Amino acid sequence: MLSRSLRSSVPLTEVGMGAAQLGNLFHETTDEDASAAVDAAWDAGIRYFDTAPHYGLGLSERRLGAALAARPRDEFVLSTKVGRLLVPSGYPEGVMDDEGFAVPATLRREWDLSRDGIRRSIAESLERLGLDRIDIAYLHDPDEFGEQAHAEAIPALIELRDEGVVRAVGAGMNQSAMPAEFVRRHDVDVIMLAGRYTLLEQGALDDLLPLAEERGVGIVAAAVYNSGLLAQPRPPADASYNYAQAPAEVISRANALADVCEEFGITLPEAAIAYPLRHPAVVSVVVGVRTAAQVTETVRRYGASIPDEFWTALRERGLVRDV
């Protein structure tokens, strides 16, 4: 599998494995399926793995670290996130997490974007992962904490990078405006952008992507299926978008994209993986997977041959803003 490097010389495979499902996102994943998914990703050439404390209250980090423990450490890149500490919840036994993960709520998430909180988060992630280092640290969804993110959290991450604790730093968010400010005001290396630069929507072309290209900041495109809307050849009537029921006009637009895909003998999810990688600032597409079969299908989609005429047709019909 091809790789692209950040300016800090961290190489990311063009497809990365997103490990939220290893934290029991929406429903339980078995230990066996989690381990098999990582094995399948490795066998397929994927060498970039992304996780976060938020994913299953640390379960994703523990499972991913265990699955990678026997792999040569210099042969893969791992990213995790900071901003939410995990602390004892004090909830009664049997209470389950209420933020989308099928895990017991023995811990709870506590926002902490202070310098000490960022450093503590990295130390605790290293302990859960059982690995000797983290390659990329993202500030995770600081939408409501902009002032503190600029004043404390991002500078704390840069300090950790300068100390050699991590190799690259940035932010992971579902919007492009605040990450653009991080790029404009700080010496960050990479932004993980979820859902805002996809086959369906390209709003990040108005702010983040031109600035990232100018400053040499890498973009990791996540949620390229827009919450599942683009994950099948045709979006179902009850498709999700931004983690909610997709509006009718959004489903109609996805169907228009699917029409052009069918004309050229490709599928909607194949095009969804390929589209972000056409931008020169994009270094990887991270796809969340739960099983080995999903990994195999993701890599097959990545390998699909897509003619230039397909992109021209989408642009001429006003369905995408090409680069």
Written overview of the protein:
This protein is 36% helix and 20% strand. The protein has helices at 31-43, 59-68, 115-129, 146-162, 177-185, 208-215, 248-263, 268-274, 292-302, 308-316; strands at residues 3-5, 11-13, 15-18, 48-50, 77-82, 84-88, 107-111, 134-140, 166-173, 190-194, 218-222, 240-241, 244-245, 282-288. The longest helix has 17 residues, at 146-162. The protein is built from ten helices and 14 strands. The protein has an eight-stranded parallel barrel with strand order 3-4-5-8-9-10-11-14, surrounded by five helices. Strands 1-2 form a two-stranded antiparallel sheet. The protein has a single domain, classed as Alpha-Beta Barrel (TIM Barrel). Helix 1 (31-43) runs parallel beside helix 9 (292-302), helix 3 packs across helix 4 and helix 5 (177-185) runs parallel beside helix 6. The chain is globular, with a radius of gyration of 19 Å. It has 323 residues and is α/β, with parallel strands linked by helices.
Q: What order do the helices and strands come in, and which of them pair?
A:
Elements: E1 3-5, E2 11-13, E3 15-18, H1 31-43, E4 48-50, H2 59-68, E5 77-82, E6 84-88, E7 107-111, H3 115-129, E8 134-140, H4 146-162, E9 166-173, H5 177-185, E10 190-194, H6 208-215, E11 218-222, E12 240-241, E13 244-245, H7 248-263, H8 268-274, E14 282-288, H9 292-302, H10 308-316
Parallel strand pairs: 3-4, 3-14, 4-5, 5-8, 8-9, 9-10, 10-11, 11-14
Antiparallel strand pairs: 1-2, 6-7, 12-13
Task: Offer a quick outline of the entry.
It holds the Pfam family Aldo_ket_red. It contains ten helices and 14 strands.
